[in-house]
Design goal:
With 136 residues, this protein is an alpha+beta fold. It has helices at residues 5-13, 17-31, 42-53, 61-65, 70-87, and strands spanning 93-95, 100-104, 107-111, 115-119, 122-126. It contains five helices and five strands, in the order αααααβββββ. The strands form two sheets. It has a three-stranded antiparallel beta sheet. It has a two-stranded antiparallel ribbon with strand order 2-3.
Length: 136
């Protein structure tokens, strides 16, 4: 069974009855065919990738994302502020991130980081977790 890393993290962070609800949501998600139109975070992830690939300044995130429907505006502004804070004053360079699969029994979790970043001589693979609940 394939399950996204984000779904796996969501499941692991839950306990009690919310864990069962999360498992049911994941099961329903797996049954659906991916549709980019329904992907709430796609424009943000794409903007972050473009920002780094083309070495644009962090203040260009809004411009890259473009005009948003009012239903997304508040959340996207928070994600943008959080990402700018993460970037801080780092001198960041981009490299193509590698994709891997993590297997545990019959479970396959594709590890698909959005960006590969290097700063201070260290390389990092970054998987954006964009949900409001912070993982503990």
């Amino acid at each position: 069974m394939d399950i996204s890393l984000t779904s796996f993290i969501d499941f692991v962070l839950k306990s009690g009855s919310p864990k069962m609800t999360c498992a049911k949501q994941i099961k329903n998600q797996i049954a659906e065919v991916y549709d980019p139109i329904k992907d709430y975070y796609k424009r943000f992830r794409d903007a972050i990738q473009e920002l780094h690939k083309h070495r644009r300044p962090k203040n260009d995130i809004s411009e890259i994302i473009g005009e948003l429907p009012s239903s997304k505006l508040e959340n996207y502004k928070k994600m943008e502020a959080g990402y700018k804070k993460f970037m801080g004053n780092k001198k960041i360079s981009w490299f193509p991130p590698e994709r891997e699969n993590w297997f545990h029994g019959n479970l396959n979790i594709p590890i698909n980081p959005e960006v590969g970043l290097e700063w201070n001589g260290e390389k990092y693979l970054v998987k954006l977790y964009l949900k409001s609940a912070k993982p503990s």
